[in-house]
Amino acid sequence: MNKKVKEYLLITLGMFMVAAGLYFFLMPDNLAIGGANGLAIVLNHWIPSISVGAFMIIINIILFIIGFLAIGTSFGIKTIYASIGTSVIVSLFEKFLPYYNSPTEDIILQLIFGVLVSAIGMGIVFNQNASTGGTDIIAKILNKFLGIGLGKGVLIADLAIVLGAGFSFGFELGMYSLLGVIVNGFVIDSTIEGMNLSKSVSIISEHSDEIKKYIVEELGRGATIYYAEGAYTRRKKDVIVTIVDRKDFIKLRSFIKDIDKNAFVTVNNIYEVLGDGFMDIES
């Protein structure tokens, strides 16, 4: 599949998840967990004649205009597509499911499922080098003009929205929203790490030539060979080091097991790999 097509399919999946988490779980109980989405929920409370989806579109357009004027054209087509697209999907939900109510009366369940679904969706979008707009743009503006770090900028913007939720919907809902902001960040990071997870594998074997050939020819991966000496035996040995994804690691482990049950293998999780065969270093 074409790389660009795959990227946009994944971004679209992430958009639908963000919109679904917001509309089906967070919006019914006015849980504003930051971002343009959360700000739209707060504004809708004060101006109910404008839907949440419409507010999201308006907020993102305004932020993009400010962003273009303040920090240039660094957002990219994918970010515009993801942010406006998510807003449109919410608007479609509001149009075709206008009287949707909470599936449960337990606000904690609503918060947990809403954050999980939307944060996983955001993680998918972020992993394609895009974003859903909102507080990301505010953070970049704060970073450029006030020197505030991007992470702190997002936190400041989200906390301001949470305070707005507390003022609009009461202290208790404000606290739930704050909890959602905190959990949201952890889930997004975990999603990105999980999608990018690779395995760094070090192999010492009497059948190193066969293993090297399998890695290069069958798995289509590269490897680095280190020449080592056993501290006890004083024997010269090859140490094969390669990085593979989870699927290829299972194949490699099975191959090693079949040809050399005495092989010595160490495995480490790698959460980001940049370069040939993996993520583009420029992204």
TrEMBL record:
Annotated transmembrane regions: 7-26, 46-72, 79-101, 107-126, 146-167
InterPro entries named in the record: DUF2179, N-reg_PII/ATP_PRibTrfase_C, UPF0750_membrane, YitT
Superkingdom in the source lineage: Bacteria
Domain DUF2179: 221-275
Keywords, comma-separated and alphabetical: Cell membrane, Membrane, Transmembrane, Transmembrane helix
The keyword Membrane is assigned to this record: yes
Gene3D superfamilies cross-referenced by the UniProt entry: 3.30.70.120
Primary site of residence: membrane
Localization annotation: Cell membrane
Membrane topology classification: Multi-pass membrane protein
Keyword Cell membrane: yes
Cellular component aspect of the GO annotation: plasma membrane
Name the UniProt record assigns to this protein: Uncharacterized membrane-anchored protein YitT (DUF2179 family)
Annotated organism of origin: Keratinibaculum paraultunense
